[in-house]
TrEMBL record:
<comment type="similarity">
    <text>Belongs to the TrhO family.</text>
</comment>
<dbReference type="InterPro" id="IPR001763">
    <property type="entry name" value="Rhodanese-like_dom"/>
</dbReference>
<dbReference type="Pfam" id="PF00581">
    <property type="entry name" value="Rhodanese"/>
</dbReference>
<dbReference type="InterPro" id="IPR022111">
    <property type="entry name" value="Rhodanese_C"/>
</dbReference>
<dbReference type="Pfam" id="PF12368">
    <property type="entry name" value="Rhodanese_C"/>
</dbReference>
<dbReference type="InterPro" id="IPR036873">
    <property type="entry name" value="Rhodanese-like_dom_sf"/>
</dbReference>
<dbReference type="Pfam" id="PF17773">
    <property type="entry name" value="UPF0176_N"/>
</dbReference>
<dbReference type="GO" id="GO:0016740">
    <property type="term" value="F:transferase activity"/>
</dbReference>
<dbReference type="InterPro" id="IPR020936">
    <property type="entry name" value="TrhO"/>
</dbReference>
<keyword id="KW-0560">Oxidoreductase</keyword>
<keyword id="KW-0808">Transferase</keyword>
<dbReference type="InterPro" id="IPR040503">
    <property type="entry name" value="TRHO_N"/>
</dbReference>
<comment type="function">
    <text>Catalyzes oxygen-dependent 5-hydroxyuridine (ho5U) modification at position 34 in tRNAs.</text>
</comment>
<protein>
    <recommendedName>
        <fullName>tRNA uridine(34) hydroxylase</fullName>
        <ecNumber>1.14.-.-</ecNumber>
    </recommendedName>
</protein>
<feature type="domain" description="Rhodanese">
    <location>
        <begin position="129"/>
        <end position="223"/>
    </location>
</feature>
<keyword id="KW-0819">tRNA processing</keyword>
<dbReference type="GO" id="GO:0006400">
    <property type="term" value="P:tRNA modification"/>
</dbReference>
Length: 326
């Protein structure tokens, strides 16, 4: 039996001087112990997901905690049977969370100075059941489609950067109500809830530690979550509800329950779709006829299909390759 892989999810808003140099130092240490994952470092803090065996991840946590800036950093620890990362990346960025406030002519938010009230998993569950509280999902649309809290509002946006403008456009709907926000691990909500407070919302809360912490809480056990949680690594979908789990996502082609996310085979489309392995083979991972017959279709290239095999696959579903010169 293969050894369990530990996955560490974490962040901390803390001033980091010479963030670019620290990112290089951080990468060197991670590579020296064989850690894998993705870390963002900026002058406002650090945000990462990394993985390795028990010894490797323990070395990393001890090293991070030995720095007084991160002595109290909260690592959320999970286990998996597969390695969720192929390489180790440490990037120096302008910010660890990009809220897109330049799009609404606003200044960035410092969560160390302004953020929403922290809610424990139990308090958050109570908020979900309170009809006078609005629970707002702050994640990207494809994250919501895979899974979300029951009754949570899905903003009409594609990504997190569009959220401030959407809130301003819909302010009258919940300006005078209690608003509670949530995200994967908490890093986005720290900044966004602070922005909402600055916008004048009187009662703003956030799920402390995010969905990840809610799932592992012994009291709530992930209850009232529908579907799976999207994660930005090879796992894609992670179970959350340990009481009455459900599958809410549907296969792009036959509408059957499916939590397998892939990118469309056409690199110029790249739309994320739910699809079973069987339907992926039938439809060549293309979300549309145009993508299935696109000259750069990645499924065709990855599987080494000949022109005839490609044409035969399309013919089986009533489609064809474009004529030369068309």
């Amino acid at each position: 039996m293969s050894k369990k892989v530990r996955v560490l999810l974490y962040y901390k808003y803390v001033p980091i001087e010479n963030a670019e140099a620290y990112a290089a130092e951080h990468l060197a240490f991670c590579q020296s112990i064989g850690l894998k994952g993705r870390i963002l470092i900026a002058k406002e803090g650090i945000n990462g997901t990394v993985s390795g065996d028990y010894e490797t991840t323990q070395k990393y946590m001890d090293w991070v905690h030995s720095d007084e800036r991160f002595a109290d950093l909260w690592f959320k620890v999970d286990e998996d049977n597969q390695e969720p990362f192929k390489k180790m990346f440490v990037r120096h960025k302008k910010e660890i969370v990009h809220l897109g406030l330049e799009n609404v002519d606003d200044e960035d938010v410092n969560p160390l100075e302004l953020t929403g009230d922290y809610l424990s998993p139990k308090q958050f569950k109570e908020a979900l059941l309170d009809e006078n509280t609005i629970v707002l999902d702050t994640r990207n649309d494809y994250e919501y489609d895979l899974g979300h809290f029951r009754g949570a509002v899905k903003p009409d946006i594609r990504n997190f950067r569009e959220l401030p403008q959407w809130v301003r456009d819909n302010k009258e709907k919940f300006m005078d109500k209690r608003v509670v926000v949530y995200c994967t691990g908490g890093v986005r909500c720290e900044k966004f809830s602070g922005w909402m407070v600055r916008e004048g919302f009187k009662d703003v809360g956030q799920l402390h530690g995010g969905i990840t912490t809610y799932s592992k809480d012994e009291e709530v056990k992930g209850e009232l979550w529908d579907g799976a949680m999207y994660v930005f690594d090879e796992r894609i979908a992670v179970p959350i509800n340990h009481v009455d789990p459900t599958v809410i996502a549907r296969d792009h082609f036959d509408n059957e329950p499916c939590e397998r996310y892939v990118n469309c085979g056409n690199p110029f489309c790249n739309k994320q779709i739910f699809v079973s392995e069987e339907n992926e083979a039938i439809y060549l991972r293309g979300c549309s006829p145009e993508c299935r017959s696109h000259a750069k279709n990645r499924y065709v290239a990855e599987n080494g299909l000949t022109q005839k095999e490609w044409a035969d696959r399309l013919a089986a579903i009533g489609e064809s390759l474009p004529q030369a010169g068309a």
